[in-house]
Design a protein that fits this description.
By secondary structure, the chain is mainly α. The chain is about 55% helix and about 5% strand. It contains four helices and two strands. The chain has a two-stranded parallel ribbon. The radius of gyration is 12 Å and the shape is globular.
Length: about 90
Amino acid sequence: MDKKEYISKLANFLMENEKSMDAINLAKHLNWNNYVTNYDSPYEGKRGIYTLIHSVYDWLVKNNRIKEAENVAKAYKKPDGSYAYNK
């Protein structure tokens, strides 16, 4: 499964269970599951992870998967608790 699909499925799971995950833990989770950046390096939980969350949201909207996009927007947070993606 590619990482966009993986992030979407994880967001769906989080929302179904009324949970969220901060972007730093998402980065750790991706690394643990052997997903790497486009530069073939591990995720660090910095700017790149937020860019990835945005691209997953946009990809889902483009593919008319609106509910899943909403889940991505709500599931992932910044360390301060605010949403990592604001529409």
